[in-house]
Batch of 3 targets.
Target 1
Amino acid sequence: MSYEPCYEQGDLVRWYEYYADGDIVRDGGIGIVLEPPAMLVGAIRSINYRVKVYCMKKHYARWFNVSEIDLIKEGTYKPDKNIKKEI
């Protein structure tokens, strides 16, 4: 099964964590895409796309396969690069 990476930074997504067998959902929540999909090439010539998502429920960011997230809304948050950070 192939998944097209259609996520961009700032998209609102629903994420899922699965048990080891991959069929039963262990946990889930809502998050914001921090980094767009990155291609990860496996040892058996398989290609997986990973997306870094900030999980609002857990208050930290982690990587998910594209198959483990669903798009809720595009472009929810776009960071302003012109804002100067205070030191």
Target 2
Amino acid sequence: MFETSGKTNRIFENVSGFKTSLGDKSPSLERTLDSYFDRNSEAVIEEWGLLTDSDIAVYQRKLEFLSYEVERLYIEKESMKNRISGIEKAIKELEAKV
């Protein structure tokens, strides 16, 4: 296997440390974008039509209300079916008597 001397190990350690310190000091695209979005977040949200937490909360409440209404309508539908069956049965009984 490949063996390295103490001198080679120190060189690799220095190179790795240099990369880390260089990365901390040099501007990066990621930091530049983060800074831009921090300064302009409201404009970006508005221009791109993004949803905020408050928008999501409003839509969630609307969804909960609509889910409740749909469930209520299904229950009402079953009740109407039962009433219709009763009325049809009563009509048939009346027609049979005539």
Target 3
Amino acid sequence: MSWRDLERRAAALDRLATRERTAGNLAEEATLRRRLLVDLDEVGVLDAVVEPPAGLPVVAGYHRAASRLGHYLRSVERARFNPDAAPTYLLGAPVSVDWFRIPSPTPGHLSDLEWLAYLENVLTSADPSGDRGEIFVHIGDGWWTLHWRTDDGVHPAVVSAGTGEAEVATGA
């Protein structure tokens, strides 16, 4: 597996996420996402140990997002909203690396990390089943939609959140 192959596969996955949301398309995306994440992990991109070569913008985006996810998993905000959360590795974490690759809006009264920690708490408290779904969240004077999926095929992870007016296209 070459760096260029990883870049090609990562870019292809992003394009696939823009297709019609049919069961078959979602299943294909899930399979390709799992394989890509495992391969990115094997070369050290998700550990933020290995910096991808220049000229690979999508893989570099995964690297930056993985670094930010690692920071979040060790953050005081996460500990405050999820005091029983154990340290976790990025693959299988309760937050998708895509949360940091494709930004979601945040309620004005919370910081970005507080909002994510709150959403993680909502997701883990709900104990969802299946491979993807939505949870409606009431906060302040509005309703939000938390989109989740199992990037690793097993563990639910927060992917995105949005208000009814401004949903983010994430493949959730």
